[in-house]
Each structure stands twice: as structure tokens, then as C-alpha cells.
Amino acid sequence: MNTLKPSVCQLKSIAYCLLSAAFLFSCSQPSPVREQLSRAEQVMETDSRAAALVLDSIDSSALRGEDAALYAILRTQTDYKRDIPLTSDSLARIATDYYGTSLHKDYHAAMAWYTLG
After folding, report:
1. What is the pLDDT of residue 27?
2. By the 8 A CB rule, do 60 and 75 touch?
């Protein structure tokens, strides 16, 4: 009796395709936190209080990398626009530590350095 058994190479190819598809799908879906940060950034100029409310709903202690840096910029901006005194430069440092490299030469990098003063 001749049964069809996939070879090890075929199984590896299938596994690779499935992992690639899962990776691509996960990259294409923005995280809920990223959506909240985008929303806060969109309303920042017209309604800094609304932006602050969006930022208040985010657990900033769980943020890492770009999300933490963007949160730091937006939090600093909302506080400034609402005349809340900045007591330290720690948020600006989070932003410049991430965006202050030569890899980042965009609006957020400029804002990171601007918030540092």
C-alpha cells in the first residue's frame, strides 16, 4: 500500500509559509495602543484636553520602544498646552533616547529634541 507522506522538506516549507503569513498579518494590524497614540496625536492641536484623556487611558508603564517614545512626546505636548509645569526632563529623555539616533530623521525626532528644550 502506497500512502502519501509529506517529506521533511515539504513540512518545513509549509511551516515557513504559515509563519510568514502569521508575521505579515500581525504587522499589518496596528496595536490598540498605537491606535490610541495616533488618535491623541490627531486631536492634539485642536483639543489638548481630549488628547490628554486618550493618553490617560494608556498604561504607560507597559510601553516599550517607539510606543514609549511617542507617548513621551505626546504627554509632554499635552501638559505644555494645558499649562501644566514640567517637573523633569525624563519624558523628553525617553523620546530622545529612541528618536535621537541617526536612524530617525522625521517629525517625531524633531519633536523629541524640541521637547527636551
Report:
1. 57
2. yes
Q: What is the value of pTM for the model shown?
A: 0.72
Do the beta carbons of residue 81 and residue 46 sit within 8 Å? no
Residue 87 CA from chain centroid, whole number: 24
> Would you state the cell numbers that stand for residue 79, as one nine-digit string?
501638559
How many whole angstroms separate alpha carbon 85 and alpha carbon 94? 18
C-alpha cell recorded at residue 45:
492641536
CA distance 104 to 98: 8
Over residues 69-83, the pLDDT tens digits come to 999 999 999 999 999
**What whole-number distance in Å separates Cα of residue 103 and Cα of residue 12?**
35
Residue 48: pLDDT over 60: yes
| Sign of the torsion formed by the C-alpha atoms of 80, 84, 87 and 90 | negative
CA 106-40-42 angle, 5° bins? 65
Higher pLDDT, 102 or 43: 43
Q: What would the DSSP string read from start to end of 76-94?
A: HHHHHHTTPPP--SHHHHH
